Structure formats: structure tokens, C-alpha cells
Amino acid sequence: MTGLDDSKVRLFFAVVPDAATRERIADAAASLPLESEARLVPRNNYHMTLAFVGEVAAPQIQSLQQIGGAQRTTAFALRFESYEYWPKPEVVVAASRTIPPPMEQLWQQLHRDLAEQQWVLDAKRLRPHVTLARKVPQAPVLQAMSSFEWLVRDFCLMRSDTSGPQPAYTVVDTWSLLDNREKA
Questions:
Q1: Which of 140, 180, 179, 172 lies closest to 14, judged by CA?
Q2: Torsion angle, CA of 139/140/143/149, rounded to 10 degrees?
Q3: Alpha-carbon torsion 86, 64, 20, 81, what sign?
């Protein structure tokens, strides 16, 4: 169980970029005109959340791993083409304006499977994005973003540790998405 003890942990399903995509995200973040109080998200924390589960006791993790392992969706590509400022969480994100059908399928099926197992989720709509900066108290003047593509080949169950000065995310389990030539 990757070193998780019996205490509760915060878990979520997400996709994590490969090294090349991580660099493109970092380039997009470096281009932001941020005030001094804003904080860039560390490169190793880049991810895109699919379903935030919340506090989970160690014995329940196996149920989440079974849900993750049951997903049958093909790999997909996302194009990130714009910056957005979100005032309530005070963040700047790189956003994708289109949702590929396999991503929508994965998101919907994860949420259905979690609901069937009595996991209560905040049923927000899917908004593909990667958080680039936090603690941005007012909207910066955002330039046009150099778009980049992210080929998503797998997804993860991740642990969130918010006890330190920066959140730390660790992968609990990973599942490959189907090759586009395989049947979903």
C-alpha cells in the first residue's frame, strides 16, 4: 500500500504529466506576470484532478484501487491554449477549452463508480486545467499563452499531504489507459 498507515489520508484521482509536458507547463508558468506574493506551483506538483475523494482510512484504499483498475478508456490528447485567473481560489491555471471524448468518459465513469461505492463527491463539471500559481490575490494582466499538447496515457490515485509549507503529492497507484487501437 505504498507506505500508508492506518490514519486517514487525502486522496484523489488525477493525471500527471510526463517529463516533456512538465517542461511545457513550467514554461507556461514562467511566462506569468505575477506579483511578489504569488507562488508558482512546484514542477513536481503539476497534475490535473479527475475526482477528489477526500479523507480516506487505509482499509478503504483497496476499494479505490479497484475502481481505478476497472476503468477502460483510451489515451487522449489535451491542448492547453489559454491562461485563466480564478478569483475564489486565487489561482492562475493553464486551461484546455475542449474535452476529448475519452477524457469525458473517464471522468464520468470514475464519478459513477465512486458514487456506487458510496463515495460522496463534489459533482462539479469537468474543467481541464493545470494550476500554475497560487496565492494570486488579484487578476494579473495575462498575455496569450503559447499552446501546448499533453498526451495522457495513464491516470493515478494520488495522496495529498498539506501539512508542510507546500502541498506534496505522491502516487499511490497508476493505471494505463488503452492504446487508441485497443477497444474500450
A1: 172
A2: -70
A3: negative
CB half-sphere exposure, 53, CA atoms < 13 A: 30
In this prediction, residue 140 carries a pLDDT of: 92
C-alpha cell belonging to residue 56: 480516506
The owner of cell 487501437 is 181
Residue 184 makes CB contacts below 8 A (sequence gap 6+) with 72, 73, 74, 102, 105, 178
Judge residue 105's burial from the number of C-beta atoms within 10 Å of its C-beta, 0-12 exposed, 13-18 middle, 19 or more buried: middle
pLDDT tens digits for range 40-71: 999 999 999 999 999 999 899 999 999 999 99
